[in-house]
């Protein structure tokens, strides 16, 4: 699948893969499974701050390696996410 499609909303609403992922379900952080819970939480938070994370949708077995705000990966801190994207809940 291409990284960007012309009509993203239509693709999201109509494709079975995205319909499955849009349902409410458990998502788990998949990094550092052998480490204690508190350390995994800290590593997840740090990875998110660095603009990356690995997560899995438990119900479907779908694993994603996320990379967001790539400018931050190169040390360019002038690009900041809007408040819409900065409200993350970590449990």
Shape verdict: flat
If helices are DSSP runs of H or I spanning 4 or more residues, what is the number of helices? 3
Oligomer: single chain
Please state how the strands of the largest beta sheet are arranged side by side.
Answer: 1-2-3
Largest sheet: 3 strands, antiparallel
Question: What level of helicity do the residues show?
Answer: 25-40%
Task: Count every beta strand, where a strand is a DSSP E run of 2 or more residues.
Answer: 3
Order of helices and strands: HHEHEE
According to CATH, what is the topology of the domain at 26-85? Polyomavirus Enhancer Binding Protein 2, Chain: A
Considering the protein shown, what is the CATH homologous superfamily of the domain at 26-85? Core binding factor, beta subunit
Query: Could you say which structural class the secondary elements and strand pairing correspond to?
Result: alpha+beta
* CATH-level-2 architecture of the domain at 26-85: Beta Barrel
Question: Strand percentage, roughly?
Answer: 15-25%
> CATH class of the domain at 26-85, please?
Mainly Beta
Gap from first CA to last CA: 31 Å
Low-pLDDT segments, ≥5 res? 86-91
Family: Belongs to the CBF-beta family.
Main location: nucleus
Protein name: Core-binding factor subunit beta
GO molecular function: sequence-specific DNA binding; transcription coactivator activity
